[in-house]
Amino acid sequence: MSASKDQDFEQPKADLRKNLRAPLIIQKIHIDAERPVFFGYSKDISRSGMFIATTNQIKQGDQIDLTIPLPAPLNLTVNCRCEVVWKRPRGKRLPFEPGMGLKFLDMPEDISELLDAWIRKID
Question: For residue 71, which of 17, 27, 18 has the smallest C-alpha distance?
């Protein structure tokens, strides 16, 4: 049996993250970057990073300052430095939405612990 053109993409590998993550939809993510405008929204978060769905991606390896408004019951706005550690391209035949994975570089440990506890409650 031959593969169709719709199956030309690489199958995703198993999720190797060491931290639990939770869905988190935030429509206004403020990114202090060299770009004048950034369009994107968060899709999930963990104590070590987050995924932002966007077609307006930043280069892998670039560092950015991020402001994240966290919902109830946390009700916090967190500022931290992040690094773009991976990107997912846009493509009609790709099974996942485009975006980028960000690693938190200087997330305060107390905020990381709050995030982790919150994620465990909703998981």
Answer: 27
Look up the domain containing 33 and give its range: 20-122
H-run or E-run covering 102: strand 99-104
- Which tens digits make up the pLDDT trace of 29-82? 556 656 545 556 788 889 999 998 888 778 999 998 888 888 888 898 888 999
The pTM is what?
A: 0.72
Map residue 116 onto helix, strand or coil: helix
Number of domains in the chain: 1
Kindly state whether residue 48 falls inside one of the protein's structural domains.
Answer: yes
- 76 CB-side CA count, 13 A: 13
CATH classification at residue 28? 2.40.10.220
